[in-house]
Model the fold of this input.
Amino acid sequence: MNSNAHGHAAHAPLSEATLELFAREVAKYPADQKQSAVMACLTIVQKNEGFVSVQRERDIAAYLGMPPIAVHEVTTFYNMYNQKPVGRFKLNVCTNLPCQLRDGAVALEHLEERLGVRMGETTSDGMFTLQQSECLGACADSPVMLVNDRTMCSFMSNEKLDQLIDGLRASNPQEN
Ligand code: FES
Done:
């Protein structure tokens, strides 16, 4: 696979620095429970590479002595792990049933239209990735969404969504 687009060297071996960080996480657990560090290791990889490739799941599995499928299950279970490269801003709209009944789907549709991408896709300028989200525990505030796995936005009417997009575009941070 060609990986020159973002300079991701996803098939290169894990760097010394990454292995050191892994070791630090593993050291937090008893020797026979090093697999407990799996989430921390996934987070380290994602921070370095922007997403968790299948190869990196294998690397982590080998490092922690667990089956690759077990690592993959963690990656897919938790929303914060990206399985593909994502845009600078990741927008996760909750479309679980309680939210859907209160305009969660309307919000997702509006964003799809506004950004010109479908759910799961990234805008061609690499700015936004649109994804669904599981219940964020704020059903009464629907439509709710999460920006970059951190910032919760509630009562996202179409107007507020437009403001959010404009604001994020304007902020256009250049740091990594
Ligand atoms: S269902 Fe959307 S926050 Fe709970």
Notes: The chain has a mean pLDDT of 90. The chain has seven helices and four strands. The chain has two domains: 16-77, 89-171. Helices lie at 16-26, 38-49, 54-64, 68-77, 97-100, 104-115, 158-171.
